UniProtKB/TrEMBL annotation:
Protein's recorded name: Uncharacterized protein DUF4199
Transmembrane segments: 12-30, 36-56, 76-96, 147-165
Domain of life: Bacteria
Organism: Algoriphagus chordae
Alphabetic keyword roster: Membrane, Transmembrane, Transmembrane helix
InterPro entries membership: DUF4199 (IPR025250)
The UniProt record lists the keyword Transmembrane: yes
Tagged with keyword Membrane: yes
Amino acid sequence: MYRYFNSSYKFGSIAGALSIIAFITLSFLYPDPTNLNLVFGYVITPVAIFLAIKFFKEYGNSGYLSFAEGMSVGFVAYMLESIISLGGIWLVLLIHPDLFEQIKLSKLDVLASSKDSIVSQVGGDSFDLTLESIKNMIPFDIALNDALWKIIPGLFFTIIISIILRKNPN
């Protein structure tokens, strides 16, 4: 079992650590680093999945890869990345509550500046519900959102990469 997930652990852990580093770095450059960190996640997640599956195929499985093996290796890679990212971002926001408040204020400002557009598209009740949810937001919510936006594309990329790299013995 270890040979199946050796590369997953490595690349998932590296991607998770890079995601935390990106969040911290972006927090120095922008008042709300969450959106750009999501974009970073869209770049690093498929790279980590590809490398994990490719390394498993080449170095752990003699050049062969079934779809199920690719899905398993990719799943571990993106789940580990998202869990490490969730824990790291949550910890950063707990240690620096001023950063959390800055992010919260930024999200409230964006919501207020686009109120007319949002109300016209989804209605006043949806706007009020969104406003209330942002006001009640806690640091874990930001970290969980980041993790979820690594899992959802991670599944998609794992399917595609597993199909592309699949090679069964003849």
